[in-house]
Amino acid sequence: MESHVCERVGVARGSVSDRTLRRGRAAIAYALCGLAAAMLLAFLVLPLVALVVTMRPADLAAGLRDPLVLPALRLSLLTTSVSLVLVVVPGTALAWFLARREDAVGRWIETAVQLPVVIPPAVGGLALLLALGRKGLLGSSLAHFGIAIPFTTLAVVLAEVFVSAPFFVIAATAAFRRLDPSLWIVARSLGASPFRAFFRVALPAASPSLIAGGAMSWARSLGEFGATLMFAGNLTGRTQTLPLAVYTALESDMRAAQAISLLLVTIAFALLLVLRRGAAAGGGALGFPPAPPRWPREPGR
Amino acid sequence: MSRLSFNLERRIGSLDLAVRFDAGERPLVLVGPNGAGKTTVLLMLIGAIRPQRGRIELDGDVLLDTASGIDVVPEERGLGYVPQDYGLFPHLTALGNVAFGLECRRRLRRAERRERALALLDELEVGHLAARLPGSLSGGEGQRVALARALASEPRALLLDEPLAALDASVRRQLRDFLPSWLATRKLPTIVVTHDAADAAAFGEDIAVLEAGRIAQRGTLGDLRRRPATPFVAEWAGAG
């Protein structure tokens, strides 16, 4: 019986020493893979540990009292809130549109939306300058009306929208695609207009994933540095967000830089915990029915 | 007497669908192999897919007539639809699902809506599940909630896609007894899609076999058994 099983899985031909050798090799391979994985994990965790353990509570308190901190915190909260709204409202509409299109045009738009994720933020900032700067593509026309965007708080918001919108749109498109198409058809057959079916059925049914996408997008905004520096500069109270304040403080007061960094890490970690809990609740309580991959298009078009 | 009659034509991929029939007070049972176009017929009736040519008439009202450009939107067709996976709204309770069907059609006060939704759930013997979310319902319970919801919108005809397919044996037998007799009390033109001969027989005498987009044969299970028109019908109905 046993030899029969062994034969079927293709081992245990050959001598005992062969088998021992093979087992030994497998053990070494496992150990090497485990070591490599452990090293990566350690490398990911170590800097965060350093950020926490090298700071005494007194230094943290002193660092947070640095005059850079409060304006930067206020500006970060303001700009990320505004950019979140600017991303989520049109982003939801765009995601709905993309989820229902299956043609080449839809795929091209989707790729265009994803681009800001892969291009370097500094390049994004430069591109924003070339588009909306005083001599830019659109900026020169705006200058006629006395509107100058670069190096203002608005520029901070736009830089954040530019880098963070893809995170939301990608998540929201996937969420709408995952919805069971029959939900839409049933809602319509029950007498709901497309408008009502969207707001009462599609949107709430997709909302756990939309919220998760919004949170990721907000976190990306909060951490935004490169595009902001290029397009909005680093002016305390006007364009200096928390990440830029870290950069500035590094030159004058290491404690302040570290304190702000800790603040950012804490916010990010809290967000991650909330999202994990949300994902667990969303999967359990809302339990999506097994869904075909696509959402149908409008009747017959 | 209410009647749903239609003829529909559409090419979908390699399937050339052309069907013409009608359903009155006895349920019309639509059977056929996978990919024959059964669900597509229901989706065209609902208005989720537009046929290239066709006409749908319900109690003398024209819902669709491609020749004269009439195409009533799904929300105004008055057809109750229960898809194969029931399509319950995952974010609403059983009661909320049924109330959704009520609120779209008429203006009712919230308390009245709730009362009616509860009455419908009771009629389908699932009143005790009113506060539950669909994710926590069993297949049979979900099916009944979906039926209650379809009725809430006061449809003029019912379309049921594989109503018994996703159920385990005991619940299936139970619903096989309950559903046809319940449908008989409602007296709505009904189309039931199924692939199971025993289910088809439970729903009634009027069975239409759809094969590769065409009605291959129509009759009672006895007729199909005695004089099967195609090899599929013979095998499906268990002839011989």
Give your account of this protein's structure.
The complex is a heterodimer of chains A (301) and B (240). By secondary structure, chain A is an all-alpha fold. Chain A has helices spanning 2-9, 16-53, 57-64, 69-99, 104-118, 121-132, 139-144, 153-178, 181-189, 194-223, 226-232, 242-252, 254-286. Chain A starts with a helix and ends in a 15-residue tail after the last helix. Residues 282-301 of chain A have low confidence and may be disordered. Chain B has helices at residues 38-46, 94-105, 110-123, 139-152, 169-186, 197-203, 221-226, 231-237; strands spanning 4-12, 15-23, 28-31, 53-58, 61-65, 70-71, 79-82, 157-161, 190-193, 206-211, 214-219. The radius of gyration of chain B is 18 Å and the shape is globular. Chain B has 8 helices and 11 strands. In chain B, strands 7-8-9-3-10-11 form a 6-stranded mixed sheet, sandwiched between helices. In chain B, strands 2-1-4-5-6 form a 5-stranded antiparallel sheet, with helices on one face. By secondary structure, chain B is of the alpha/beta class. In chain B, β4 and β5 (61-65) form a beta hairpin.
Q: Considering DSSP H and I runs of 4 or more, what fraction of the residues of chain A is helical? A: over 70%
The quaternary state of the protein chains shown equals: heterodimer
Largest interface: A-B, 29 and 39 residues
- CA distance, first residue to last residue of chain B: 37 Å
Structural class of chain B: alpha/beta
Low-confidence stretches of chain A: 282-301
| Number of DSSP helical runs of chain B | 8
Distance between the termini of chain A: 62 Å
Helix run count of chain A: 13
- Approximate shape of chain B: globular
Question: Can I get a quick summary?
Answer:
With 301 residues, chain A is mostly helical.
Topology:
The complex is a heterodimer of chains A (301) and B (240).
Chain A: H1 2-9, H2 16-53, H3 57-64, H4 69-99, H5 104-118, H6 121-132, H7 139-144, H8 153-178, H9 181-189, H10 194-223, H11 226-232, H12 242-252, H13 254-286
Chain B: E1 4-12, E2 15-23, E3 28-31, H1 38-46, E4 53-58, E5 61-65, E6 70-71, E7 79-82, H2 94-105, H3 110-123, H4 139-152, E8 157-161, H5 169-186, E9 190-193, H6 197-203, E10 206-211, E11 214-219, H7 221-226, H8 231-237
Helix pairs in contact in B: 2-3, 2-4, 3-4
